[in-house]
Design brief:
The complex is a heterodimer of chains A (173) and B (672). Chain A is an all-alpha fold. Helix content of chain A is 50%, strand content 2%. In chain A, helix 4 packs antiparallel against helix 5. By secondary structure, chain B is an alpha+beta fold. Chain B is built from 14 helices and 22 strands. The longest helix of chain B has 22 residues. Chain B is globular. Chain B starts with 9 loop residues before the first strand and ends in a 53-residue tail after the last helix. Classes of the chains: A mainly alpha (173), B alpha+beta (672). Chains A and B meet through helix 2, helix 5, strand 2, helix 7 and helix 8 of A and helix 2, helix 6, strand 8, helix 11 and helix 12 of B.
Chain lengths: 173, 672
């Protein structure tokens, strides 16, 4: 949950200007602030994965496209930049580098299979998607026995109206 | 195939058990405890029985891009397993399959299993409802499928034994009241019920007490949310076992860990803390007389001319990535096939055994599953806790079964995970990423907009799973395709599978019930059935589109019965044609009811273990020593494991159980 204002973090990795730029970009793509992104511990891995998958030249073009769009990913004009933005966002949300669109894959002349893969075991458990609904990654960070009985944030309290099995006051019709 | 000199791999035991899954592990435990020397041959590897091996499987699961049930467990070309990813739906209906199981039926058998030490039970969900008394007589009562030769009453004590061994958490009073299940007076499960999820409470508040009619002519059924028994560590019940209580069994290889479910929400495919029962927990308590040999693929059962099993031939390999192997044999007084319904049938067919009734491989069953899914008005708390903690049980019973298959309704706690692959599919969809990278991609959402849309959409997901009973039909079957062989040269199973109209009418009724529940919940129904790559189970029925899934409940390939002419095994799961060859597991079940079958499989395995023990005892009855001058009356048999304890000289009289009188004594094998 993002309760902290976006801002430059002070951990060693962020002192590297490339990471700082990558984090700034990722904040715009994901809607999570820099504090949350750094806290995943995935900044360096994802930065390196993007570079490794696309090459420095394609990343340079992508960054230029982002700058031309005023830093707003919604205004990315060309499909190559847009698909790279999709991939980086997908990586942050699920820990999985996705297939690029076939056209973009071909245009980039990538010398590797256009295949999805999980960046690391931790990348899966640090996926941002689980946080969007106040959850935890399936198979990790377990919240404890019986916690599933409690209403999730934002839910009313029907859970506590009939805590035990048996005849509830039940439905109509 | 290579061959090895016979002595190199030759050994003799009291019992050989083929397969170290749930059934084989329990049989080995019981017989080892009785003092018999047991050899367990497991086709797969043994990665999971150490804690580092377990962690490796967990990492494999984390990195799998498709988190299917077999995803944590490494593929093994020498003992291949079917995988859900093997099946692919075609654009206009129909399916294609790529994997180990060959298929030629009208509909796909969409069920996997796992050939590994621990078996498919490594990735089971862990639900342990008992079968209902009426489930044992569906042919005579409702006119479909096959009747069992034994009744609920015959199995009741073994259900209790299985509930102890597996460590079941549940509410017996609620099961008795809501389902009419007979329990002995005062009986409680080892542990208190797994708490209901928030979603269970939401559904109960909306539907409990409402009466619905699922199909024309059917009597009204009263909706009621009922908690489900699980083989999952919960709060021990101090009243269990006449006040002796119960100590939960924790993780294998890490003491005092996993003694309670902590809500990892990944029971399938792997419980990270091992709060869910797996056979490895039982194996940790095997007697030292039980020998486990993994990497040992049994290729056939060896028999004497008189039909008695002599032992097995198996192919031993070192490296799962290499085809190199050694042919070995092992001998025993009794051979027990416990390799899974499909694999048991495969072994009987490979060996040309038990063929008199013509039923080997036939009557293949599963619990065909219909999924419905939608969005609730408010947050459901998806992806929390065990996959399902409660269900609606009212459609499992009653005269409506004559017309349509009965079904059990599971309330899913994991959002649209099964129907759509959520939450990954939601991320991809909102980013405009389609399944086919050649297709144009949609306009993506980014930033706060994406985050909010995901949170709202996933947070309100819920789904229902309707598991239908499939009756035994001889046309649904396992055969072998000699032209298609696995890496070790063993012919691959060929499945022919379809759904009856009885089952399809059950799905129509299930959807009607779903519609009613969604209405009561004020839910937005997002259920959609159509052909496509992820819908191999697509079909049309009565003018509508339907998609079904497999439940992983393979059953019925060596059904038990009360006649050697119509069934493969007798009421003790002993092959009619081979008095010292058992085939145990779900393959023996003549009907599967609407209960997840593992508990019943376990109860049957424990029951058969008692008979195997009696058979062995009879075989090892002391011989009379001839010389007249000696006062000796008896000595232990040459390989008797019972030491100096008084030999049991009474004839083997199977205790309890109907049909017992028809069982041939192993000491006096019948010829057929």
């Amino acid at each position: 949950m993002a309760t902290h204002a976006p801002g430059p973090a002070r951990e060693p990795a962020s002192s590297h200007p490339e990471f700082q730029g990558f984090v700034d970009l990722s904040v715009r793509l994901t809607g999570f602030d820099a504090y949350d992104l750094h806290a995943t511990g995935m900044v360096r891995l994802y930065h390196d994965t993007v570079l490794d998958q696309l090459g420095r030249e394609a990343v340079g073009r992508f960054l230029a496209a982002v700058e031309a769009a005023g830093g707003d990913p919604d205004r990315l004009a060309d499909e190559e930049a847009r698909d790279i933005a999709r991939a980086i966002t997908h990586l942050w949300y699920l820990g999985v580098w996705p297939q690029l669109s076939r056209a973009v894959h071909t245009a980039l002349g990538r010398e590797r299979a256009n295949a999805a893969f999980t960046a690391s075991p931790e990348a899966y458990t640090e996926g941002l998607v689980w946080r969007t609904f106040h959850g935890h990654p399936a198979g990790a960070k377990p919240p404890g026995f019986g916690t599933w009985a409690a209403p999730p944030p934002g839910a009313g309290a029907p859970a506590l109206s009939s805590p035990l099995s048996g005849t509830a006051d039940g439905g109509s019709s | 195939m290579s061959t090895a000199p016979r002595p190199a791999g030759h050994c003799r035991y009291d019992v050989i058990v083929v397969g170290a899954g749930l059934a084989g592990t329990l049989v080995a435990k019981e017989l080892g405890d009785e003092g018999w020397r047991v050899l367990v041959l497991e086709a797969g590897t043994d990665t999971l029985s150490t804690w580092p091996g377990h962690l490796d499987a967990l990492d494999t699961y984390y990195t799998a891009t498709a988190k299917v049930p077999n995803s944590p467990y490494r593929p093994n070309p020498d003992a291949p397993s079917p995988d859900l990813l093997d099946l692919e739906g075609l654009p206009d209906g129909g399916y294609r399959t790529h994997g180990y199981l060959l298929q030629n039926g009208p509909l796909p058998y969409g069920t996997d299993y796992l050939r590994s030490n621990g078996g498919t039970t490594l990735h089971w969900l862990g639900l342990t409802p008992r079968m209902l008394p009426e489930d044992f007589a569906v042919r005579s009562t409702f006119g479909y499928g096959k009747d069992w030769p034994i009744s609920y009453a015959d199995l009741e004590a073994h259900y209790r034994a299985a509930e102890r061994e597996l460590g079941v958490a549940g509410d017996t009073a609620e099961q008795a009241e809501a389902l009419g299940l007979p329990f002995p007076a005062g009986y409680v499960y080892p542990m208190r019920e797994i708490p209901r999820s928030h979603l269970d409470h939401v559904v109960a508040a909306a539907v409990d007490g409402v009466r619905v009619k699922d199909s024309a002519g059917a009597p009204d059924t009263t909706l009621r949310v009922v908690t489900t028994p699980h083989a999952r560590n919960s709060t021990p019940n101090p009243h269990y076992d006449e006040g002796r209580g119960y100590r939960p069994v924790g993780a294998v290889g890490l003491p005092d860990y996993g003694e309670r479910c902590v809500g990892n929400a990944s029971c399938v495919p792997i419980c990270p803390v091992q709060a869910k029962y797996t056979p490895l927990k039982t194996q940790a308590r095997w007697d030292h007389r039980v020998t486990l040999v993994t990497h040992a693929v049994v290729s056939r059962v060896l028999t004497h001319d008189d039909g008695r099993a002599l032992g097995v031939e198996y192919l031993a390999y070192d490296d799962p990535a290499a085809a190199a192997h050694t042919v070995r044999t092992a001998e025993a007084d009794i051979v027990v096939l416990a390799a899974h319904a499909v694999e048991n049938a495969k072994l009987l067919l490979l060996s040309g055994l038990a063929g008199r009734s013509g039923q080997v491989g036939r009557n293949l069953m599963d619990h065909p599953v219909l999924l419905t899914w939608g969005l609730l008005p408010g947050p459901t708390g998806p992806f929390r806790g065990p996959a399902s903690t409660s269900g609606l049980e009212g459609f499992r019973t009653g005269p409506a079964r004559r017309n349509r298959a009965p079904f059990r309704v599971e309330i899913s706690n994991w959002g649209w995970n099964w129907p759509t692959g959520a939450p990954s599919s939601d991320v991809a969809r909102l980013l405009g990423i389609t399944g086919d990278s050649g297709q144009p991609r949609g306009k993506p959402l980014f930033g706060r907009e994406l985050r909010t849309a995901l949170g709202d959409g996933i947070g309100r997901q819920f789904s229902l799973q309707f598991a239908l009973e499939q009756g035994a039909e001889s046309r649904n079957r396992v055969t072998l395709d000699p032209s298609r062989r696995d890496r070790l040269g063993i012919p691959q199973p060929l499945l022919t599978y379809d759904l009856s109209d009885h089952v399809k009418r059950g799905m129509v009724a299930a959807k009607a019930v779903s519609d009613r529940i969604f209405g009561l919940l004020g839910a937005e129904d997002r259920t959609a059935y159509g052909p496509g790559p992820f819908s191999p189970g697509y079909f049309r029925f009565e003018g509508g589109d339907w998609v079904f899934h497999g439940a992983g409940h393979g059953a019925g390939t060596h059904v038990m019965g009360d006649s050697r002419d119509t069934s493969v095994v007798d009421p003790w799961q002993r092959c009619w044609d081979h008095p010292n060859l058992y085939a145990v597991g779900c393959g023996s079940m003549p009907s599967v009811g609407t209960s997840n079958p593992s508990l019943t499989l376990a109860a049957l395995a424990l029951r058969s273990s008692e008979q195997i023990h009696r058979d062995l005892t009879a075989l090892h009855r002391p011989v009379r020593v001839r010389p007249a001058h000696a006062p000796v009356t008896a000595v232990p048999g040459p390989t008797g494991p019972l030491g100096s304890s008084p030999p049991d000289t009474s004839p083997p009289t199977p205790a309890g159980g109907s049909g017992a009188g028809a069982v041939p004594s192993p000491a006096t094998p019948r010829t057929s």
